[in-house]
Amino acid sequence: MLAEKYSIVSVVAQALRGQRGWKPVWREPEPRAEYDVVIVGGGGHGLATAWYLASQHGITSVAVLEKGYLGSGNVGRNTTIVRSNYLLPGNIPFYEHSLKLWEGLERDINYNAMVSQRGVLNLFHSDAQRDAYARRGNAMRLHGVDAELLDRDAVRRLYPFFDYDNARFPIQGGLLQPRGGTVRHDAVAWGYARAADRRGVDLIQNCEVTGIRVEGGRAVGVETGRGVIRARKIGLACAGNSSRVAAMAGLRLPIESHVLQAFVSEGIKPLVDGVVTFGAGHFYMSQSDKGGLVFGGDIDGYNSYAQRGNLPVVEDVCEGGMALMPGIGRLRLLRQWGGLMDMSMDGSPIIDRTPVEGLYLNAGWCYGGFKATPASGWCFAHLIARDAPHPVATAFRLDRFATGHLIDEKGAGAQPNLH
Ligand SMILES: Cc1cc2nc3c(=O)[nH]c(=O)nc-3n(C[C@H](O)[C@H](O)[C@H](O)COP(=O)(O)OP(=O)(O)OC[C@H]3O[C@@H](n4cnc5c(N)ncnc54)[C@H](O)[C@@H]3O)c2cc1C
Description:
By secondary structure, the protein is α/β, with parallel strands linked by helices. The chain has ten helices and 18 strands. It has two domains: 32-84 and 86-111 and 185-254 and 346-418, FAD/NAD(P)-binding domain, CATH 3.50.50; 120-178 and 257-344, D-Amino Acid Oxidase, subunit A, domain 2 (D-Amino Acid Oxidase, Chain A, domain 2, 2-Layer Sandwich), CATH 3.30.9. Helices cover 28% and strands 26% of the residues. The strands form three sheets. Strands 1, 2, 8, 9, 10, 11, 17 and 18 form an eight-stranded mixed β-sheet that branches. It has an eight-stranded mixed β-sheet with strand order 5-6-4-13-14-15-12-16. Strands 3-7 form a two-stranded antiparallel sheet. A hairpin with a 2-residue loop joins strand 9 and strand 10. The radius of gyration is 21 Å and the shape is globular. The mean pLDDT is 96. Flavin-adenine dinucleotide is lined by residues 40-46, 65-68, 72-75, 77-81, 208-209, 237-241, 245, 260-262, 296, 339, 365, 367-371.
């Protein structure tokens, strides 16, 4: 069954039929005994990988196995920010490739993902921080990425309601990436799922992978709650659970799992029209189309597989918000939730082959993997299809922790909870 093409014509036609003719967005197939490629994890990265395997490499004998429902993980739990404002050469080309794919995504997958390039502004509060941000902005511009260093008056013109004279954290200016912004997160999962399904990819929900079959050093299939599924190649894209799933093939990953929380306030009139990060603590925010302020902060700081957070971090995040924008104190918190982060040892991801032949790894996205979704899927599909890394992802090697070629964007050292 082919889903219809969404267009103004189909919207009008459905309206005339009383909205009763819409078809399911994807099929619910039974798993086959064997596929060319099995992707473990139906989050953003797994679904994007399946779509690009089909659309860019013509590989359609693909199954995406998801233990819950599609998009039930971090792709539906994040704060929707996309940007490419990185410093290091290993990162900038990859994230810029991702931002370019975001810019064309809706046409590519025929789905409204509400891509909104409303600008991402990182505030700085000291001379040293301004120098660091200027350096990062220069690195971005050298790579052809948009970046503007704003002084305090320019920031004040954009956001007059911030506390500029806060005694501890006075705002001195900010680094703006105008092309950064937000994308409706669960629409990304649904859009990639629908597009991949249209090309014949089987999306199997409620299908937990419980084992990886390895014969003679080669991965040949997975054990699931719905039987054994054999595959020529297996890609792991199970953020937050990467270590557990990789352990099924005898691998120990340089990754810790941590909780990250997010928050939404009650709806208010349009106030914050971009994405803003506080530079003196861990707090960032944007405003959703429903009017709620969407904000978040630091990870909870201890290893966990629980998708819920602790109260001290709630307090810490709200304190950051109050220091930046005291008016936020009059808002009520509507919702709060947590997701599981694969925190790698240098804060950067892994897209690579593993020592087990036929087993490929996409992991370690820390709390910044949503923005990477298109490029991650693009590069992982390239790696699986061609057995060679994509040129913009060559730095994301698994063996860099042994060879010392780390991509430590923050300079925090081998301390996963600090990245
Ligand atoms: C609160 C919060 C805020 C965030 N904010 C941002 C942000 O603003 N910008 C940004 O860029 N990033 C952000 N992130 C990070 C981003 O969401 C993640 O890095 C990214 O979504 C991870 O990739 P994914 O979408 O494939 O993960 P997921 O959606 O988590 O997909 C992995 C899937 O694997 C499945 N799975 C696990 N084990 C198995 C198994 N054994 N068998 C079958 N399936 C399995 C899971 O159920 C899950 O659906 C945030 C994350 C959180 C939690």
